[in-house]
Amino acid sequence: MAERVIDIKNLSTGYGGIPVVRGLNLHVNPGEVVALLGPNGAGKTTTLLTISGILQPVSGEVNVLGSSIVGERPEKVARRGLAHVAEDRSLFFDLTVQENLRLGLTPDRAKRAVAMENALNMFPALRPLISRRAGLLSGGEQQMLAMARGLASEPKVLLVDEMSLGLAPIIVERMLPIVREIADKTGAGVLMVEQHVGLALSVADRGYVMAHGELTMEGSAKELQANRALLEASYLGGGH
Amino acid sequence: MKDAIGFAFLGIGAGGFIAMMAAGLVVAFKGSGVINFSHGAVAMYAAFTYNYLRLDGTIRLPLVDILPTHQANIPVKISLASGGPVDKWLAILISLLMSMLIGAGMHYLVFRPLRNAAPLGKVIGAIGVMLYLQGIALVNFGAENPQPEAILLPNTLFTNFLGFGKPLPGESFALAIVAIIVGAALWFNYKFTRFGLATRAAAGNEKGAVLLGYSPERLALSNWIIAALTAGLAGVLVGSVTGALNVVKFTTLIVPALGAALIGSLSSVPIAIAGGVGIGMLQTVVATWMSGQSWFPEWLQSGATDAIPLVIIVLVLFLRGKSLPVRGNIQEKRLPLSPYPKRIGWYVAVFVPLGAILAFGLPGDFIFAGLSGKWGFAFTTTLIGAMLMLSYVLLAGYVGQISMVQLSIAGVAAFFMARMTANGTPSPEDPFAVSGPGIAWPIAAILGIIVAVAVGIILGIPALRIRGVQLAVVTIAAAVSLQTLYFDNSKLTNLMAGSNAAVPSPTLFGIDIGSTGSAGLTDSPKFALFCVIVLALMCVMVSNLRRGSTGRRFLAVRANERAAASAGVDVPRTKLLAFGLASALAGMAGVMTAFQQQQISSANWVYFAGLVTLAFAYLGGITSVSGAVIGGVLTGSGIVAVFGAHQSEGLHSYTPVLGGVGMILTAILHPSGQSMLYQPIVQYFGNWLKRARGREWAGVGRRLGPFIVIGLAWGAIGINPWRTDDWSRPWMMALGAFLALFIRNLVILIRSGGHRELGSAEATQEVAA
Q1: Whether residue B768 has pLDDT greater than 50
Q2: Is the predicted pLDDT of residue B445 greater than 90, yes or no?
Q3: pLDDT tens digits, residue range A5-61?
Q4: Are residues B54 and B130 in the same domain?
Q5: 3-state SS assignment for residue B38
Q6: Which of A26, B46, B324, B682 is positioned for an S-S bond with B232, CB 3.0–4.6 A?
Q7: Which of A52, A93, A104 sits opposite B204 (nearest CB)?
Q8: Greater model confidence, B508 or B128
């Protein structure tokens, strides 16, 4: 088996030195889609922010693409090949779609045209909007742009935070399979935080369930789906 | 009309300079969201550097040798070319490198630490840099005003430029061309390169840029260097176009540059360039052609040129109705909390008698005979400074409106009062008396304040649509306009050129409470007491305002205008009320300044002195009444400044430098100002006094006694590193004891890691004992 793209051991992380997430163990393999599930306030977004270096862990190990990111600046982590599609999408509203994508492009000049083309192929709906300012796009279009921008950097690790937030169910149903496609085509490892449990598990290989900052369940997507009752209980606060 | 166009082209040189400055302001704003009030100072330093390289081949680094010994020195002056002038192009290159060095320094030492500060904190940082560079230039280059040489096309003169019949120096033409080239280069850089794209991206969403692997710090550094480089380029290449070089010259030209930059929303370099050239041309047309026309109002002849940027800035900001791009920082701090004033009566009961003692001395002049001479003057300056600071506390601290015009509003009250009291009768002190109604001083003072309030409210109208740092730009332009349209305008003031407006001495029930003391100096204790009482009343008023429903509305507007409006606060009314009240406070300060100075001129109210008073208010603590008082103590020519100058004459020339450094450090380390630093100490001490019994006093005696004894002995022997010639022995001993305790506490503070407040360090000791 190839080396794990994300490997987290016994991680505690949070804000201002106070851990929100405690004792987390998690890994993602190349080409794998892993769903991170759990109720609000479970610490899912906090975990993603720690992996991309925006938050520093309180203790524990976080390895991305084979080396630790502890003490590393977020821009350095990103340059290793990690793309983080944040909850707020972090788009540049004053720039056009094309400019947003250009900023996401891999530093390797030779590959840029291909990468841009691949990203647009994945989200063809963006093509006619290419010179529109990002701030003028609809919510679904903005989410597509955020994903496409992440893809344009040809990441080896992709973190996707609440892609479905504020989107119509029909759009979510179309977008989630694209995550699967990305992992299959590019071989990137994907860790996605998602509220649509059923949809997420339908595209994921494996899943982790968090509640109150701790891991309560983990297993293959099939196992988790088979265990709906337990899964639902963890959302309602009684998963132990 | 042909004439007018011909005259307009005469302005393209100055326009080119303004354009380049404006482009630099845009770059700095793009790169780090700072409106860089120190931009002119950077240009000035580069221009002086060039000038001295050409004069005697020396480079003077922008620092001072702070080491007191003559053996170990920090290198400041580097000599090249063995004393002779350096080649022109090499000198230009070195000067530009110097400006880039300053830009990098500004990033690392000032704006990087301030990147998450509240907008006002960044403004203070920029003012700090401005003061520092001006102070350094005074120390390094002296107060000379050299005439710079023309650099571009020095010996060319177009005798009939474009056929409009007006001669144009080649230098002016070349400067405009260079501005356009610089603008085009910057435009290309920000439009088409990945660096430019990333800069624009980081300005919009810093987190997004970080997540894509761009370092906002590296981007900011590069942009600061580019901004400083354009400043240096403008400062050096302007040559003789703007006349003799002096320390504040380019800083005064920042206002039209800000106007030009705002036309381009602080984001478009080409529009800023066009706007800059346009403003320069417009100013020249107004100054030369238009003011010569018969229809041009006579009272506008002085100052119309300087009012142009104000008009343009207000029109652009007000009519467009769209605000500047706000930077999406990861986290931007707000202004510090505004504490709820408590125990106002106690403060008055302590500080008014204390003020009376400082003014008159102890009964029978026992030990202390009251502050007199320069100390008396410094005391009243401090009190009046605190009055002015109160207006900043109300406006900026409570309502969050950054106004830089308060000092000028004080000037309006003072000038209006002076005119109202004038009666046209010449006297030995006032041989060129101006005509006027000759109203009694209290009524004239009230009229002056009313006019100040009216001006303040008018200037507050833009604040209904313009917010934050943009408002600061409007108010700074307003300050410049007030200066030239009113204070310097002999048509309105009726003053002879260069003469001052006389102010009569106030009397109350037959007692002279004017500032002239018994020895003819401006140190009358009665006037000092007058100031103490006025300040106390103003402090009580502002405190009560903060405690009442008006204060809550003020703070609601400061926190979030929309939320305030949805909670039923009438935001426009609240803002205008704040501008009116703050103007009344500033007007009071102006009236008292007039009484103190006895004659006033426009030099009392120059606009960058207004910038500095805002910075001192911030230094003291802009959100609290006690902060205003501390700001007054720190203010220029106040008690601290005079004490410092008195104790170390050598240090005197470094005052602006130290002021700038202090301002930057406060903005970085202690954004809530000095008052918040002292508050816990005072509180702790007050609580301790309340519950202290014999045992506690004995404990303090054991701990502090030895230090007090050493200090007293130190003072008694009188070996001191400072001037002691006019200090009596008891005072020396008291000072020695104070310093011994101060040094002890400083050591405790440093040993405790500097994190703990003084009070808590003491408290831990007490618990341990």
Answers
A1: no
A2: yes
A3: 999 999 999 887 788 999 999 999 999 999 999 888 888 999 999 999 988 999 999
A4: yes
A5: coil
A6: B46
A7: A93
A8: B128
Distance CA B36, CA B8 (A): 29
Q: With an 8 Å Cβ cutoff, are A94 and B198 in contact? A: no
Name the residue among A90, A100, A104 with its Cβ closest to that of B207: A90
Whether residue B368 is predicted with pLDDT greater than 90 in this model: the reply is: no
Query: Which residues are CB-neighbours of B336 under 8 A, at least 6 positions away?
Result: B621, B622, B623, B671, B672, B673, B676
Q: Is residue B637 situated within a structural domain?
A: no
The domain boundary, picked from B288, B320, B352, lies at B320
Quick one: which of B656, B657, B641 has its CA closest to B609? B656
Q: Any idea where the domains of chain A sit in the sequence?
A: 6-235
Q: What CATH number should be reported for the domain whose range is A6-235?
A: 3.40.50.300
B299 and B377 within one domain? no
Residue B63 and residue B202 in one domain: yes
Residue B73 lies in a domain: yes
Domain count, chain B: 3
Residues B244 and B352 both lie in one domain? no
Residues B293 and B405 in one domain: no
In chain A, whose CA is at the least distance from the CA of B192?
A99
Are A23 and A11 within 8 A, CB to CB?
A: yes
Identify the domain boundary among B286, B320, B354. B320
Q: Kindly state whether residues B277 and B387 are assigned to the same domain.
A: no
Burial state string for B390-407 with b = 16 or more CB within 10 A and e = fewer than 16: bbbbbbbbbbbbbbbbbb
B326 contacts in chain A (CB < 8 Å)? none
Q: Domain limits at B744? A: 692-768
Contact A160, A147 (CB under 8 A): yes
- Per residue in B177-200, pLDDT (tens digit) is 999 999 999 999 988 888 998 988
Compute the nearest-CA separation of B118 from chain A (Å): 20
Residue B666: predicted pLDDT: 81
Q: What is the DSSP string of B516-563?
A: --TTSSS--HHHHHHHHHHHHHHHHHHHHHHHSHHHHHHHHHHH-HHH
A78 in reach of chain B (CB within 8 A): yes
Is B659 a member of any domain? no
Residue type, A48: L
CA distance B57 to B574: 58
Cα B287–B291–B293 angle (5° rounding)?
Answer: 145
Does residue B297 surpass a pLDDT of 70?
A: yes
Q: Which of B311, B309, B304, B307 is nearest to B491 (CA)?
A: B304
Domain of residue B420, CATH code: 1.10.3470
Model pLDDT for residues B154-168, shown as the tens digit of each residue: 777 777 777 777 778
Amino acid identity of residue A174, one-letter, is R
Matching residue, tokens 């590069």: B222
In a domain, B574, yes or no: yes
Length of chain B: 769
Question: Which chain B residues in 209-238 lie under 8 Å from chain A, judged by CB atoms?
Answer: 209-216
**C-alpha triplet A94, A97, A100: angle, nearest 5°:** 70
